[in-house]
C-alpha cells in the first residue's frame, strides 16, 4: 500500500492514528471530533485507522467514514488479526507522512482538551487512574512504566 499523503501543500501536516479493535460505536465519534478540530483550525490533516480484524464490523464503519470528500484524508490500514496496541501504533506510523503525528486509542477514554497546544495523558498523575483492570493488567502496566523509566 502507498503511504498516506496529506492533500494540502502546507508546511505543517498532521496525521491522527486511532488503532481500533471492536470500536464500531466509538469510531464515528472520534473521527468526527478530530476532523472537526483539524478543519476548524485550517490544518492539513489525515487519519490512518489501523484495525486488527475487529469482529464487530469496525472495518465496515471505517469504510463508511471514507466518503468521497474525505477519501484523501481518511484511510483504513487493516491488519490480519488482533495484535497489540503498541504494534498498531508502529504500523500506523509506517504510513504517516506528516510533521506531527497524534496517536491515541479510540476507546474514548481520553478527555478532549480545548485550551492546550500539547497534551499528554497519563494514568499516574493528578487524579488519573485505572478502572476495571485486573491485577495482571495493572502489573503489566506498572512493569512497562518501570522499564521505560529505567531505560529512557
Automatic annotation (TrEMBL):
Q: Quote the EC number.
A: 2.4.1.83
The record's section on Gene3D superfamilies has: Spore Coat Polysaccharide Biosynthesis Protein SpsA, Chain A
**Name of this chain's protein:** dolichyl-phosphate beta-D-mannosyltransferase
Recorded hits in SUPFAM superfamilies, A to Z, give: Nucleotide-diphospho-sugar transferases
| BP term (GO), one | dolichol-linked oligosaccharide biosynthetic process
- Enumerate the spans annotated as Glycosyltransferase 2-like domain: 17-128
Under the cellular component aspect of Gene Ontology, which terms does the record hold? endoplasmic reticulum membrane
> Does this UniProt record's set of keywords contain Glycosyltransferase?
yes
Query: Membrane-spanning residues where?
Result: none
Q: What class of enzyme is it?
A: transferase
**Organism annotation:** Tuber borchii (White truffle)
Give the record's family classification: Belongs to the glycosyltransferase 2 family.
Which domain of life, per UniProt? Eukaryota
MF terms from GO for this chain are: dolichyl-phosphate beta-D-mannosyltransferase activity
PANTHER family named in the record? DOLICHOL-PHOSPHATE MANNOSYLTRANSFERASE SUBUNIT 1
Keywords (A to Z) from UniProt: Glycosyltransferase, Transferase
